[in-house]
């Protein structure tokens, strides 16, 4: 790295670079008078024994003048490097300066300390601090130097050294206090940061705007946006007017925590009183990318051009990234070519990432070479982009070779490199390799793979919150709950459990394995709960079929003054559909219109259609479909699923014809709905036509789900042996879902021969799935083989398997009433049973003939008993709801024939509309008939 040449009045020898360079381990300060003289030019006066008093006083003055003259050009070079954030060059220039015999003054040393912090070298920082301490009172006692020392340790994340440097200051001004507050905030110690903020004021030091911004930024970056906004309001009450940087702190904090909706809301509020600057634009653009809000991103680009904001490397890099993530690659390339400043590595990295997202690896490597021709060396971020892409593509050998190449070039892969590899391997489904990479990070692998060579002679790379989050996602998908708990312990031991993303993923992990006690426990221990955390808990309860709890928690979240985001609203809408909470769903629809007045995203449109469909309002679902513009294939698929739920099979076929006319390419899911519609109508030949046209006409290769649909259609038609032949000819290995479909068809047709084959395959694939045993035992019961029925039930008991309890939910007003089998704790249970008794009397008097009850054992069940929970829910609806109000019920099991028959009678006898969703079919009972046509 070039350094400033010495002034012409002196001619010191070429400076040895080893005295102060990024690679040295300590600053070497000349410690003796003789050592200083070795650097004097020839002819300079030398000390000869004891100098006269007069000479002793005069010489230090001349030396100081000489050192000042000698230091001046170096100081200018160091200052220029610091302003350009060229930290390594600044440190090397200072090394040359020390070699020339010049010493820093109280103005230069703070810049050197800043360069040490920017370089991220704790050893150099300690050496620079030692140099300041040896400089006497003129340096060590200077408040500017002292403040810079505290700030340097704070920037390095060394809180203990920052506190020690702070404690040694004779006078602590607002700058020193702010630096220490920032040190604690940067490491996530928010309580300590806030306590210091209060202590500063108690000591008589009034916080300035920068102090407030530091504290606000700390809370925002750590995900506690609520506390950051509270401090923001408190700042105003204390008479400190927030500046643009104050708003930027919160926006940046939201973006760093992927709270893009919140960032956008705060940005819009800011624009009402402040004019965004280049930092604001660079901070909010990632939110535009995360929300795919291309229109807003383009408006921000226009704002930059219209207001003459310089398109520097920071704003330019953010624009390139935004356009690239939104798929506008040509726009991104134009921005790259128009950046006004000299392009740095960050900008080139964004261009490389652009080509990688575009799937043009050849162009990415071409940009890599052009960057080097431009005089810039690729950094670890550059290589991490390639590693991540190769891992995502499943090209693990290329990723491993890159690791080795990085080591050969003298660079050391960092934790981001490992995170990129683990995430990429996980996304491609290479779970074993991803776990091996995680073990290598901890030093617990044998390191035989070529990629891990760099770990053999170095300490293990410590996993970060991002690493733990990725590994927990992997273990959640694999349902490896034991390993998940081990990673949870690791996170607790290493202080990573407080990371908001780790905590949220732990809630998700426990929710997916059905351990809601642990999920709720992790959630309760989270100090700074944000929207992401709440979403994890809401989704966990919904996943475990406790949608009524999810809706209750959603209300609690609103009461905690947290604003729901897109994901929150989706979860709430899906929960409304599961519990048939139409009133709640309509309120959410109004909220969506208010928050997205210009039109809401297709994902929300799909959630609304799903909610209306499951709540029985197919007309409202159709209205949402009609008003959604533009419609992607997901919107069309969702409308088809609503029609299927209501057994409007021919409407599905008609909608598919409209889809073809709209020039939208159907996807594999479209054909699953289409084949399911054929199954409902018994259209075997039409289904075969669609199935074989998938690949021939649309280029869609049938998946196992499509083969399962065909098996279902054949099974419903009674072609069970033919379905076995079809399975044998499949190019794919049958899974549990397919064999379960066969088994249910055998139950429908009481086919024990094929049922035993299907059951045998299922018990091998899913030995702990209770429903398989229940269906198989019912096949034996249908054929009168009660000993075999009991044998299957005994096998379940021996394996510790228990039948899930039936449960029905009635939505009434703002409450969801659950009714679980065997639970008679409802406050109105006496009135419910009395109502059912009156109904059975009317049934008997009218000559009602009960249908067969599903066989569970070799005993007769009273068909007039309140046997299943939907009957209890109907009775409660009759006594608690207005006569003209539909009774809406959802349940977790398919309705039996007796319940279906009796509710038809009740709908006619009480002149009530009763809506029941059993997860398989939507039943609308009215005037003694059901919309399903008695086929479900």
TrEMBL record:
Superkingdom to which the source organism belongs: Eukaryota
- Keyword Metal-binding set for record: no
| Keyword match Repeat | yes
Q: Where are the PPR repeats?
A: 173-207, 208-242, 243-277, 344-378, 379-413, 530-564, 632-666
Bias type Pro residues, positions:
1-17
- The DYW domain extends over 861-936
PANTHER family annotated for this entry?
DYW DOMAIN-CONTAINING PROTEIN, PENTATRICOPEPTIDE REPEAT-CONTAINING PROTEIN
Q: Which Pfam families match?
A: DYW_deaminase, E_motif, PPR, PPR_2, PPR_3
Q: Which InterPro entries match?
A: DYW_dom, E_motif, PPR_At4g14850-like_plant, PPR_rpt, TPR-like_helical_dom_sf
Instruction: List the Gene3D superfamilies.
Output: Tetratricopeptide repeat domain
Task: Alphabetically list the UniProt keywords.
Answer: Repeat, Transit peptide
Q: What is this protein called?
A: DYW domain-containing protein
